[in-house]
Each structure stands twice: as structure tokens, then as C-alpha cells.
Predict the 3D structure of the following.
Amino acid sequence: MCCVTMPHFYLKNPPSLFPVPFGIELQQYRFFEIFAYFPYGLFIIVVITNMTWLYVKKYTPQSISISKVWEVIAIAYFAPWLPTLVLDNFLLTYDLAIPFIIVPLHFAVVGIESALVAIGLQQVFNMPANKAWLIGLGGGFIFLALAGIVVR
């Protein structure tokens, strides 16, 4: 199995953020579009971190730093994508990267991320379980709304 990079993934079967401007070659446009995902993904994580921080402050007696919330969110949202990247590359290599497989897989990953956020909030900030799970699910819905619906 050859290693397929994320640019190869999007060049072969890309989603499009924006309509292709007139006169630009499609593959070149798609390649540069990949680099637009990084700042947009960072924006999404910052939104989720700020939302989480605002709600965590309400439900815990201790003072909460936004940097500690950032650590919980960053670990919870980035760790599950490492094995998913390998799996996406495998699916693409064997022409199995179809919406019927990819969409449920990525929904499951967002669910895992939401669960990791909830568990992290309970462990790090001693939040009540019901509030932590609501905040974790809220972050997952924000991620799906901004990344899944707006981009795709």
C-alpha cells in the first residue's frame, strides 16, 4: 500500500469550498484550496474552545484558564484524526473513498471527539457529568455545522 498524502486525497476526489474562478486550472485551484482548510480548521477549534471555556467557567468553582481548555480541546479533536488519516489513505488507495463509507466514518470520529471532550472536562475540571456531556456534544455539533455543512 502506498502512502497517500492529504493533497493527493483532495486532488483525486476533492470537496470544493468555493466555485473555481474563471481561467484557473481546476487541479491547481483544488491544490491551493487545501491550504485554506488549515486556517478555517483553526478558526473552528478556536470557536469550540471559546464556547467551552465560557460554559466551563459557569459550572466549576475553580478558576479556569483558556489555555487549559485549549489543551483539552486540542487533544480531543486532533488525536482521533491521526488514525482516521491512515484509514482515509487506505480507503482512497483501494478506491473505497465513497460517501457511503467516508461520511459515517467521519461522523463516528466527531462522536469520539465529543466524548473525549466530555471526559476531559470531567477529569481536568471536575465538571458534573451531565454538563460535561452537553458541552462535548455542543462542540461536536459546532464542528459538524462549520466543517461538514458549510464546507461540503
Q: What stands out?
A: Residues 26-59 form the longest helix (34 residues). The helical segments are 6-12, 26-59, 66-78, 81-93, 99-125, 129-150. Confidence is low (pLDDT under 50) at residues 1-5.
